[in-house]
Each structure stands twice: as C-alpha cells, then as structure tokens.
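Hey team,

Filing this mostly as a record. A colleague (T.K.) asked me to run one chain through the structure pipeline before their review meeting, and I want the input and output archived in the tracker in case anyone asks later how it was produced. No errors, nothing strange. Just documentation.

Input sequence:
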Amino acid sequence: MKGRRNKESCDVCGRPEVFAIVEIERAKMMVCRSCAYGKKILYYLNEEEEGERGEIRAPVKKSEETEEIVDDYAKIIKKARESLGLPLPVLAEKIKESRGYMEKIERGELKPTLATARKLEKELKIKLIEKTVEVAPSISHKKQSSEPTLGDLLEKGED
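Output structure:
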C-alpha cells in the first residue's frame, strides 16, 4: 500500500514527520519543519510523546497572560466622553492623539493601541483593557481517515 500514511504526517505536504502545530489562515495544522518555517507556531510536538494509534500529543504550554481591548470599546468610549461633556477634539488633545484617529476609534473603525487605551482609561475613568490568561491545552491529533494527502498522490505519481 504505497502512498498511504501509516502514522501522522504533515497536513500540508504529507511528509511523514510532524514537527509542530501552526496556524495557517486561522486553521491549526500539524506540519513538518519545512512547512512550519515562517508560520506562527502554536505548539512544538515531541515525537517521544506519541501515543496509541498514531496519536501525537503536544506538550502543555505554560499559561500566558495577555492584554486585550474589550470588544465594545467604541460604545464605552463614546458614552463616557459624552457623559463627561467632553467634545472629541478636547479629549484627543488631552490624551495627545489626533482628532481623526480618535474619530475612527469612537466609530469602531480602528482598535486603539494598548497605550492609547490606557490613556483613555485614565482620562475617562473607564475599563477598556482586559487581561486574559491563555493556557494551551494538551491536544491530540488523530488520523481521521485513510484518504491520501496531496503529498501521497504526488509520491504515487512519481512511481
């Protein structure tokens, strides 16, 4: 049965080696070293942790604390500014940002940077930044079908 995968292989090219799980166009994929090059690596896979039936587990990643702007930032900023009776140009001047930039933020067209969000939080006495703790789960990736990959088909065509 040449051309069939007998253990986990790269989701992109079909090579039998799996190096990491990466994000490609918002999809998580198991890839080899060469396909991982230049991609956002989510987890490094350790071949020694290979489980039963071709299952490969990623090592648990340490928890990572990040700061993010809340989703409804535009409404919060506008409501707080209006309740304080502050015209937009005055607010922009107080936090040393351009009027156009502030207009786009308030309309929800642009997300403020963390630095700008901190200045807005201080000036308007609001909460725009939330801390999130991301713990990468130990994931497993099992071969779901015995269908060949594009790499398998290419190998078969070379024979």
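Quick notes for T.K.: The first strand starts at residue 20 and ends at 24. The two ends are 13 Å apart (CA to CA).
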